[in-house]
Amino acid sequence: MGNSLLNNGTTSLMDSTKSQNSLRSDSNLYCYPAPDDYMFPLQVLGCFVNPLLSLVGLFINVLCLVILVKVGLKKTTYILLFALVMSDSLNMFENLDFGNKIRIFGTLKSKPGYCTFEYESEMNQFLYVSQQLFGFVGLWGRTINTSIPMIITIKRILAVYFPCRSSTGGSLTSNYSGKVVANVASSDFLVKNFSVLNTFTVYALETLASFVPTCFMCLGCILIGIKVSVSVSQRRKLTREKKKQKWSPRTTRTLLITCLIFAITHAITSLISAIASVSTQAPLLTYRLVEISAFFNISSCTQQFLRVLRL
């Protein structure tokens, strides 16, 4: 009887030791080695610099939202700006993901470099849920944050090249009818081509994180600048003014400044992400670039503030 209990205890102890050894050798849980020469800079960026700048950006975005609400969300431009500020705020939640920072830089580690939660069961579950929630909100905020500037650019191009006026009732009717038809068509297509749509979503996310938004906005700004210059020149000829006509380029200048800021920050982020994805042989470079990428991504809040101040 005693020997059987001893054998069972020895077997369970060996199984426990084997499971711990398998955990420590699991490459899926392994993030990167942890020498002090570059873990400390990563920790400073990820745990202090990025969250602090994100809080500052959230404060600026709250001011923008207050200004937009006071102005009134009656124009398409204001609605798009409101959506842009909201998406930028959601984007910053990725830098405030305390669960992910504990997962990477937590003090309780069975082995340095593991990205795991090694606390009690309830705490591990809470940290995991918070990490997934913050990551989900941040991912879609970052994706929408790159798509809305392109929509704003398209709206400005249409306003400059094809100026038109329509009644509010007609606009609401046409928009609602188009939305119903699009929802019916997309629902039917979704049922029949679910796997295709999943693949399309992946390509869409990759495209929005690439250089495409930057190139699109730069091209749109060039087209808008050309059209505005031509319109001003034609207006001078029609009025036959000898002196130079006074023209306030406030809207166009604001658009160009914000697009320039967006282009610089997004280009740096896209370049760093591309370099980091192919730098599998250089973990030091890879993870430093990822943290610096998040740092540059935060600065996009300034473009919303510049836009709103021009209202």
UniProtKB/TrEMBL annotation:
The chain crosses the membrane at residues 48-69, 211-233, 254-276. The keyword Cell division does not apply. The keyword Kinase does not apply. Keywords: Membrane, Receptor, Transmembrane, Transmembrane helix. Residues 1-23 are annotated as: Disordered. This is G-protein coupled receptor.
